[in-house]
Every structure is written in C-alpha cells, then in structure tokens.
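[audit] Reproducing an earlier prediction to check determinism. Same input, same settings, fresh worker. If the tokens differ from the archived copy the diff job will pick it up downstream; this log only records the rerun itself.
[audit] input (212 residues):
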Amino acid sequence: MSSVAVRVTLGIALAIAGVLGLIDLLTDGADLRLWWIGVQLGASAVFWVAFATDRGSWWAAIPGAVLAAVGVRSLLELSTSILNWREFVFFAIASLGFWAVAATARRRWWAIIPAGMLVSLGAADVAERLLGDQAAGVALFVGAALTFVVLALAPGGRAQRWAWFPSIGLAIIAAIIALSLDGIEIGVAVIWPILVVVGGIAIVVSALRSRK
C-alpha cells in the first residue's frame, strides 16, 4: 500500500471511530460495543483500500468483507426490529469479498463457490425463519445449484463446463427435499421454481452442445 492509501485509510478509520464515540456519548451509554464496531469497520476499510490500490493484494477483499460483515451484524444486534435478518445480511456482506476476488482474474474462478455458498446459507436462514427447516434445506441446495450455474457461465471458456453436473445434481436433491415438505401448497410453491431452474439448465446445456 502507498503512503497516501495508508493515510486515507487511517483517516476513514478515525472518522468512523469518532462518530461512533459521539453517538455512544450522546446516548448516555457506557456500552463499548460501538467502539468495537468502529474498530471492525475501520479494519475492514484498511483491507479494502489495500485491495483497491494494490493488484497483488487481491486476497485483502476476503478479510475486508468478513470484518465488514461482523461490524454490520453487530450494528443490527443493537436494533431488535431487524434481528431476524442479521444472519442473511452477515452472509451476504461476507460473500462480497469472494465475489470481488473472482472479478479480479479468470483464474480465480474458485472464489465463486464460497461466494455463492455464503449467499445460499443466508437464504437458507431466511427460509427457515419463514417456512421451516425443510424449506431451509431446499433454499440451501437451490442456492448451491445456482452457484455452480454461475460458475459454468462465468468467463473462462470450457474450463468450468464441469460445473453443470453438480448444479443439476444439487437441483435434483432440492426437488427431492421439496417433495417431502409438509403441506401441498408449500410443496408446489417451492417445486415450480426448482423445475424452472432445471429446465433452464437443460436448455443451456443443449445450446452449448449444439455449438460443437
């Protein structure tokens, strides 16, 4: 990192810590959680600046996103009205680091897998809260299947064509879990988008084969 980047990062971190300190003071609370949140977000900013200013520091996006996710999750814990969404927000923000890594170079296609799985875990948590455990399983496997679809369609030529096979297998597993859901209405509601996903995958695979 250049000296300018270091100074900019330090300034951002200090500003965040100062604002949070004022909020903590004005709300007449001795709770130091806001200070820790400021430290987490400030540390995240350091890694993101390194990622943005140094091509060799592509890895910095991962800890930067994780620290940001931890900080935002801690902020959400301060409000009881949005506690149900904090896990989804955590996983979604944490996945941004891997998406950023995947975007830096085609050879880092592997980062798509943890990125997609983190989003899938967040979706599964939401599904569990809204529909129950089995719906969470469906959401997890559908998300995993879509992750491999994204991997197969990502720039990189034929190297990732193998990703179609796990995506189809995971979609089938999701369909099997959906068929075991209690209640016909829930089962139908979950099955039809899965069938659409499988149908779309089949069309894409057929189109790719026709290009040979």
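[audit] rerun output stored. Observation attached for the diff report: Residues 1-104 form one domain.
[audit] end
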